[in-house]
Design brief:
heterodimer, A: mainly beta, six-stranded mixed beta sheet, four-stranded antiparallel beta sheet, 0% helix, B: mainly beta, seven-stranded mixed beta sheet, globular
Chain lengths: 114, 112
C-alpha cells in the first residue's frame, strides 16, 4: 500500500535561514510527487510537482524539491525563508498512470521566527 | 491556472441532517476526488470518481456518504445523516489525464 511520511510535525526556522522539509514515500513504482502548502483556514496550493525528467524541480515562491529514487524521498527546500512562508506543508503521492490514489502525508507546520 | 469551485464555503447543519457539498470542475478534467481535513489534522482521502462511478474509496467513506455528478457537470458529496465528527473541511479535487489534482478552496462543515 502506498504511504507518505513526513517525519517532522513542526519546524521552526529564523527568517532568512534555509529550510528543508522531509518527505518519504512507500510505493510499488515511481509515483507522481507533489508538495502543497496550506495557510491557516485556506485551501491547498500546489507548490511543485514531479512527474518525470529532471529530479530537481522548481516551484513557486522560490521552493524546490529533489526526487531521490534510492532514498524514496522528495524533500522540499528553500534557501532563504520569508515570514510569509509560515504555513502547513503537505507532501503527496499519486500513481504514475492515473490519479485515483493520491495520498497525503500528515503535514509539517512551519513557524518562521523574526 | 485551472480553478475548481466549491460551494458553499461554510455550512452549518444540525446533527442528523443531510448535507450536499458541491464542486464545479474544470472542463475536460474527468477525475474527481473528495478529501476531508478535520481541524488540525492531516488531509484524508475519501473517494475518487471517474467515468460516472467510484474508482476507490477509503474506510472513512461509509454508507452515509455518496457521490454523484447529477447533471454531468457538478460533482457532489452527500452526507446522509451528519454526525458531530463529520465536522471538517471538505476539499474537492479535479484532475485530467496525467495532470496534478487541482483543489477547490474547501467547504467548512460544522455539525452542531
Amino acid at each position: 500500500a502506498q504511504s507518505v511520511t513526513q517525519p517532522d510535525i513542526h519546524i521552526t526556522v529564523s527568517e532568512g535561514a534555509s529550510l528543508e522539509l522531509r518527505c518519504n514515500y512507500s510505493y510499488g513504482a515511481t509515483p507522481y510527487l507533489f508538495w502543497y502548502v496550506q495557510s491557516p483556514g485556506q485551501g491547498l496550493q500546489l507548490l511543485l510537482k514531479y512527474f518525470s525528467g529532471d529530479t530537481l524541480v522548481q516551484g513557486i515562491k522560490g521552493f524546490e524539491a529533489e526526487f531521490k529514487r534510492s532514498q524514496s524521498s522528495f524533500n522540499l527546500r528553500k534557501p532563504s525563508v520569508h515570514w510569509s512562508d509560515a504555513a502547513e506543508y503537505f507532501c503527496a503521492v499519486g500513481p504514475r498512470y492515473n490519479n485515483n490514489d493520491m495520498r497525503f502525508g500528515a503535514g509539517t507546520r512551519l513557524t518562521v521566527k523574526p | 491556472e485551472p480553478e475548481v469551485t466549491q460551494t458553499p464555503s461554510h455550512q452549518v447543519t444540525q446533527m442528523g441532517q443531510e448535507v450536499i457539498l458541491r464542486c464545479v470542475p474544470i472542463s475536460n478534467h474527468l477525475y474527481f476526488y473528495w478529501y476531508r481535513q478535520i481541524l488540525g489534522q492531516k488531509v484524508e482521502f475519501l473517494v475518487s470518481f471517474y467515468n460516472n462511478e467510484i474508482s476507490e474509496k477509503s474506510e472513512i467513506f461509509d454508507d452515509q456518504f455518496s457521490v454523484e455528478r447529477p447533471d454531468g457537470s457538478n460533482f457532489t458529496l452527500k452526507i446522509r445523516s451528519t454526525k458531530l465528527e463529520d465536522s471538517a473541511m471538505y476539499f474537492c479535487a479535479n484532475a485530467g489525464e496525467n495532470t496534478e489534482a487541482f483543489f477547490g478552496q474547501g467547504t467548512r462543515l460544522t455539525v452542531v
